[in-house]
Amino acid sequence: MDTQQITAPSRATAGDPRPATPSGVIHVNTRHTSRYTVIGNHLAQHREMSLVAIGLAVHIQSLPAGAKIGIKFLADRFPESETRIAAALRELEGHGYLSRTRERTPGGRVVTRTVSYNQPGGDMGRPAPRPAPRAERQRERERQSVVLVVPAPVTTPATVRASVPEQRASSPVAPLPPPLAEPQTHDLAHHRAAVDLLAGLRRDDPRLLLAEDDIRRLAPAVAAWLERDAHPDAVRRTLVADLPEPLKRPAGLLAHRLATLLPPPLPAAPAGESVRRPDPLQNCDGCDRAFRAPEPGECCDCRSNLMEAA
After folding, report:
1. How many CB atoms lie within 10 A of CB 282?
2. 259-307 tens-digit pLDDT
3. CA-to-CA distance for 198 and 250, rounded, in angstroms?
4. Cα separation of 228 and 178, whole Å?
5. What residues are paired with 113 via a beta bridge?
6. pTM metric for this prediction
7. Which of the four CATH numbers 1.20.1740.10, 1.10.10.10, 1.10.260.40, 3.30.465.10 does domain 41-121 have?
8. Strand 281-283, strand 110-116: pairing
9. Per residue in 184-242, pLDDT tens?
């Protein structure tokens, strides 16, 4: 009875956080006094979001106001790819932790306004409501899907005109690019000249190196210019003049110029008025000198010499 048990502790250790069994997590908590962020368990223990989305939400909530959280910036900051970061941002938007809207500044630039919520469904300046349970969110989605199939009410022209400015103010839409012109007739010579002209633009500026798909897409528009009696040199000068710096999308710039600067067709000549064209060049049968005449033959000097010899 007086034998000492050396394998048992002499006394219990006060404050030992270890459980009786070695399984499960052990928390060793230290109170933070600076540089910390409060994260709710609804985010840290979310059952429907990926770990990448949860970690990205924690990182965003720890940043100061005005910090950059663009996809390219985050991909440079973390080892995840742009695709995974974009998917995580979409998850946060879908669960109400993030909202991104595109707005136009007074200077005309379109910027993305990003708002981070520490609880889903929160609003700026007001406390956020508790997140709805999963079953309630499912019922809400079903109610919204039913509403979407109901036919829209008949609106009068007055109500349409009244609603258009409201839509433009809330969601500005960028104008569509002008369509490319098509030639009226299929001329193989014009098409070949258009392809050669587009492929040779890189001789004027190396930045105008176009891919084959871009050349096939732009060739009909150049053929429409040639069909309207525009000289190939004039088309080339119009396309390469005053190129912006830097030139990011050469094919898009050429498509814009071909669509917006298309010249009108030449007006028809007045009735009864014929245009006098010079005779074509011919090679003299006697001296092989070039001269203008409606048909091949001899030049004036050779004809005079024959008449004198006779």
Report:
1. 17
2. 999 888 877 766 655 666 778 878 888 877 777 888 888 888 888 777 7
3. 11
4. 19
5. 101
6. 0.35
7. 1.10.10.10
8. unpaired
9. 888 888 899 999 999 999 999 999 999 999 999 999 999 999 988 888 899 999 999 98
